[in-house]
Design goal:
The strands form two sheets. A six-stranded parallel β-sheet has the order 2-1-3-4-5-11, sandwiched between helices. A five-stranded mixed β-sheet has the order 7-8-6-9-10. Helix 1 (19-30) crosses helix 6 (232-241). It folds into two domains: 9-113 and 229-255, NAD(P)-binding Rossmann-like Domain (Rossmann fold, 3-Layer(aba) Sandwich); 119-226, Dihydrodipicolinate Reductase, domain 2 (2-Layer Sandwich). By secondary structure, it is α/β, with parallel strands linked by helices. Helices cover 28% and strands 25% of the residues. A hairpin with a 2-residue loop joins strand 9 and strand 10 (217-225). The structure holds NADPH dihydro-nicotinamide-adenine-dinucleotide phosphate (NDP) and the ligand O=C(O)C1=N[C@H](C(=O)O)C[C@H](O)C1. NADPH dihydro-nicotinamide-adenine-dinucleotide phosphate binds next to helix 1.
Length: 261
């Protein structure tokens, strides 16, 4: 995409003072053909978004829907990394997109909501969904830094959902679990019927294991982000391609040929 003036893609960042937002600002400034035109954070007036063609949103789950709605209502494409997009929020966003004005090039607005931009995490989710139907037991363990405000992680919630969908399509039954007494919640959360366990530990960044078990064997699929740099190629790819994907896309895998279009 180039904008109407042909001067590359003008990019705004919401949540620009945060851990991810600051990293995204650096990555945009270093990327060919992208120009950082606005940094916005808590309390800032988003206004005309600095004239951005594409906004990258990394704030907090309770703020992201209003920020994205602001962009969409102004015909600005959005790449969203913030978590918390349940079915209700996604449905509201679809309605907002249906009523949105066209973008600056006249094309319909595109929004990409991606729970994880790291290529390895996307592959982990894809592999887990492929493997899920072959195993009696599946559990997800996500491990993150202790400053993270949401649990389970957006990636774990998405992984559990993809696993559950794959199992349902294959006619696999519920995962085995004889537990009848768990007053402290030691068995973790159930997301789409899949047990999910959240660890918060100083020193960690973002990590996940999917454990799949059968009689006599276990398959472990693990991904580690040791540095937030791991998310940047995916974010930049999203910025470059979001205008070619009108409407709502959930998951960067749809831009990478890893999922049905
Ligand atoms: N999709 C992916 O690949 C990844 C997603 N994430 C997700 O991204 C989100 C941000 O993570 P992280 O950067 O670590 O969090 P941070 O807390 O470091 O950053 C969030 C920033 O957003 C600001 N903020 C709060 N409210 C608003 C608002 N209404 N408008 C604009 N900015 C606001 C915060 O300001 P203040 O602190 O002053 O409130 C803070 O500067 C989380 O949901 C996280 O799970 C994280 C990593 C990768
Ligand atoms: O808060 C984080 O750090 C992360 N959030 C995303 C999530 O909740 O899945 C992506 C990644 O795990 C890092």
């Amino acid at each position: 995409m180039t904008n109407s003036s042909g001067a590359g893609i003008r990019v705004g960042v919401i949540g620009a003072k945060g851990r991810m937002g600051a990293e995204v600002c650096r990555a945009v400034e270093a990327a060919d053909g992208l120009r950082l035109v606005g940094r916005f954070d808590h309390g800032d007036d988003l206004g005309d978004l600095g004239g951005a063609d594409v906004v990258v949103e990394f704030s907090v789950p309770d703020a992201a829907p209003a920020n994205v709605a602001h962009c969409v209502a102004r015909g600005v494409h959005v790449v969203v990394g913030t978590t918390g997009w349940d079915d209700g929020r996604l449905e509201t966003l679809r309605r907002q997109l249906a009523e949105a004005p066209p973008s600056s090039t006249g094309a319909p607005v595109g929004v990409l909501v991606a729970p994880n931009f790291a290529i390895g995490a996307i592959l982990m989710m894809t592999f887990a969904a492929q493997a899920a139907r072959f195993y009696e037991s599946v559990e997800v363990i996500e491990l993150h830094h202790p400053d993270k405000v949401d649990a389970p992680s957006g990636t774990a919630a998405r992984t559990a959902r993809l696993i559950a969908e794959a199992r349902e399509q294959a006619g696999a039954g519920p995962v085995s679990d004889a537990t009848t007494h768990d007053p402290e919640g030691a068995r973790g959360a159930r997301v789409s019927g899949i047990p999910v366990h959240s660890v918060r530990l100083r020193g960690l960044v973002a990590h996940q294991e999917v454990l799949l078990g059968n009689v006599g064997e276990m398959l472990t699929i693990r991904h580690d982000s040791f540095d937030r740099a791991s998310f940047m190629p995916g974010v930049i790819e999203g910025v470059r391609r979001v205008a070619d994907h009108p409407g709502l896309t959930v998951g960067l895998e749809h831009y990478l040929g890893l999922a049905a279009p």
